[in-house]
Structure formats: structure tokens, C-alpha cells
């Protein structure tokens, strides 16, 4: 259960340098995704560079996921990888990125939709920063109250919009 490989993977997964390395990879990967455009010629140097770096970062994130699987377990252990909601987000993004790289898959609209999920990569930083986690968890906790506030605010906008419309209708000059 606590073999050498698991202890080695645990020492890597728990190391601060590993987290910092993954955060740096996420930042660089996100910046490179921002450079990507469907208007680029697929044979251009930039498009090839972006494809190679996307493959490299997907491989790095896949290795990170496998290290965490070995270190913490996949599902059955108490602190297993798939039992943490933030790891679920990380895992889904990694799996979508790996599926996107499979060359035998046709270029269909479902895969294009899956490719859009790669845009969630920057959200993986949240899972590594306790302060950001606290902010996001707090936002999710207050979401029902926030919805009520948005509804009341929307009603005020509607009321004053209708008031302004009825009061100022026809009062301003228009272009002929």
C-alpha cells in the first residue's frame, strides 16, 4: 500500500516546487492558448509551435495527474484524486486535452466543443491557491443570496427604465 513508488510520487505531489512548476505551466499554456486563432495558416510556424507546445503541456498535465493518482489513489482512498471537486475540474480538463490530441478522431463539432473546455485551464490555478479557493467557495456558498440580489436589482432597472421610457419618449431630437 505504501510502496516506494507511492512514497516517491507523494513526495513529488506534496513538494512546493512541483505546485509552482505546474502553476507556471498553466500560465504559459494559457498565454499560448490566447495566441491561437482559427485564422492562422495551419502550416505556419506559429501554428506548428502552438501545436507542439499544446502537446507538451498536455503531456506535463497528464504526468501530473498520474503522479497524483499514484500518490493519493484514484477513487477508493479517503483523499483520492477523484474525490476532490477541484481535482475533478483538473482531471476533466486534462482528459479533454488528451482526447483533443488523438489523431484518429474525426474533426466533428462535438470535438470542437470539447476543445473549448481547454479554456478552463486557467481555472486550475484556483485549486492550487488556498486564498483563491476560499474566494470561489464563498461565492458558491452565497450564490442563492446573490441571485436574489440580482433579481431585485434587475427589477429596479426595469422599473426605472420603463419610467424613463414613458417620461422621455419623443422628447429628444432624432436624425432625419
Write the layout of secondary structure elements.
Blueprint: H1 4-13, H2 16-35, H3 45-72, H4 85-101, H5 109-116, H6 130-141, H7 143-168
Features:
176 residues, mainly alpha, Four Helix Bundle (Hemerythrin (Met), subunit A), 2 domains, 7 helices
The major β-sheet equals: none
The first-level CATH class of the largest domain is given as: Mainly Alpha
Task: Classify the beta-strand content into a percent band.
Answer: under 5%
Radius of gyration based on Cα positions: 23 Å
Number of helices: 7
The CATH superfamily of the largest domain turns out to be Voltage-gated potassium channels. Chain C
CATH topology of the largest domain: Four Helix Bundle (Hemerythrin (Met), subunit A)
Instruction: Tell me what the CATH architecture of the largest domain is.
Output: Up-down Bundle
Class of secondary structure makeup: mainly alpha
Question: Could you tell me how far the N terminus lies from the C terminus, measured between alpha carbons in angstroms?
Answer: 82 Å
- Low-confidence region ranges: none
> What series of H and E elements makes up the topology?
HHHHHHH
Name the assembly state.
Answer: single chain
Please tell me the total number of domains. 2
Helix content: 55-70%
Main location: membrane
Keywords: Glycoprotein, Ion channel, Ion transport, Membrane, Repeat, Transmembrane, Transmembrane helix, Transport, Voltage-gated channel
GO cellular component, one term: voltage-gated sodium channel complex
GO molecular function: voltage-gated sodium channel activity
